[in-house]
Amino acid sequence: MSFIKIKHSSVFGIGALTALAAVFAIYTSTQPVEAISTDDAASRQAQASGVTPAATQTAAKVVNINKLIAAPSAISPIKPGDNAEFDAMMKQRAEDAAKAKAAADAKAKADAAAKAKADAAAKAAQAATRTTTTSAASTATGASKGTFKVTFYDPAVLGSSMGYGGIAANLSVLPRGSRVKIQLSNGQTLIRVVNDTGGFAAGNPHQIDVAMPNSQIPSAGVLSAIVTII
């Protein structure tokens, strides 16, 4: 651009300045848009729209983040043992949990023992029921050996240790170990096991000698009875 030397004059000077301004305006209007700073353009656009420039927003965010980063440094780190109350609370919780577990284990063991005892009692009851049922069935359907002559003796008086649970009999008729029901003619019923024999059995195979204390032997001394193997 060439400059024209203008003679100093107040009137002419004002006119010259006006002319120069017009020339400058024409010049700038012909320049490429890129010649205007991008930052200036963004700032002008933001100011025109009333929005805070992005750079200003970013700067504000950076300041806030730096404040957050710096904040923890003002707090002293907690070291083990510094918080005695917290440590005591955690210790108490651990002790309570251990006690609760021990109580639960003890209850489980007690419940298991009670169940095992109940199961054993139930099995014993079932076995007793089966035995009673079997005995009753055997009595009803057992093999009757007919009518026998019944005599009595006291093993203790004879110096025997056989006890009072057995009878002596002819072993070919009533084998040793047979469990028999004896329905006496006086209405009494005895259950005995054949565990002995005697000289009388050879001559009278349908005679049995029942072990019994002398104090309990019937006054008749000799009775008859229906004998059934059960």
Please characterize this protein's 3D structure:
With 230 residues, the chain is an alpha/beta fold. The chain folds into 3 domains: 10-66, no CATH class; 86-141; 143-229, Beta Barrel (Barwin-like endoglucanases). Helix content is 48%, strand content 17%. The protein contains 5 helices and 6 strands, in the order ααααββββαββ. The chain has a 6-stranded mixed beta barrel. The longest helix has 58 residues, at 84-141. Keywords: Hydrolase, Signal. GO terms for molecular function: hydrolase activity.
Please provide the count of β strands. 6
Instruction: List the total number of helices.
Output: 5
- Please compute the radius of gyration using only Cα atoms: 62 Å
Multimeric status of the protein: single chain
- Please identify which CATH superfamily of the largest domain we are dealing with: RlpA-like domain
In this structure, how is the largest beta sheet organized? 6 strands, mixed, barrel
Order of helices and strands: HHHHEEEEHEE
Report strand %.
15-25%
Task: Walk me through the topology.
Elements: H1 10-29, H2 38-49, H3 54-70, H4 84-141, E1 143-153, E2 166-168, E3 179-184, E4 189-196, H5 200-203, E5 207-211, E6 223-229
Parallel strand pairs: 1-5, 2-4
Antiparallel strand pairs: 1-6, 2-5, 3-4, 3-6
Protein traits:
single chain; 230 residues; alpha/beta; Barwin-like endoglucanases; 3 domains; 6 strands; 48% helix; disordered N terminus; signal; hydrolase; Hydrolase; hydrolase activity
Structure, briefly:
This protein is α/β, with parallel strands linked by helices. It has helices at residues 10-29, 38-49, 54-70, 84-141, 200-203, and strands at 143-153, 166-168, 179-184, 189-196, 207-211, 223-229.
